[in-house]
Amino acid sequence: SQQGEEDPQALSIQEGENATMNCSYKTSINNLQWYRQNSGRGLVHLILIRSNEREKHSGRLRVTLDTSKKSSSLLITASRAADTASYFCATGRGGGNKLTFGTGTQLKVEL
Amino acid sequence: SAVISQKPSRDICQRGTSLTIQCQVDSQVTMMFWYRQQPGQSLTLIATANQGSEATYESGFVIDKFPISRPNLTFSTLTVSNMSPEDSSIYLCSVEDVTGGTDTQYFGPGTRLTVL
Question: What is the mean pLDDT of residues B83-95?
């Protein structure tokens, strides 16, 4: 299977803490995208990082990419209860190509 | 970013019947993708749908079970045929945003299918 792995599978933290999720993949990529899914609904695109980038920021999100280790991490700073969701990484191999999704991390942020 | 809608949002169907899911995009796109998410699982690509040609199916998915139409650049349908309880899943369509050259893929809200 080409599916990536994410860890942890589940993460429970207190509001205000930081949450870090990791993603590993198996093949060479052009980009890696992170998505959020609330309660089995549609996916919300969070951030895309290209293979020639090492770090990217968007608001409270920080994504890193290490192509030598075939891994990426998503950091959510100062978490809120509204961040409670499942988070997926997905690797792409360029324009018009399909995404391969990781197994996902279920994040629970408690008040 | 592309705005995608799907119909129906959810449905409960009987074994042996078929359901057609519609996906509408607010802009013209070359490629549309259909994914399945089984309960508690990640997403798996079913097929890629190009306008004017037959869909390309991933390993484990066949046209007889999941026929796809792509009549124009803003619309596609996925049919789940001869359903069984194992087909209970969320089905999502997606498109790639090529206008900004970002390769970002955007997803519709999904169709939650329950087969009894």
Answer: 96
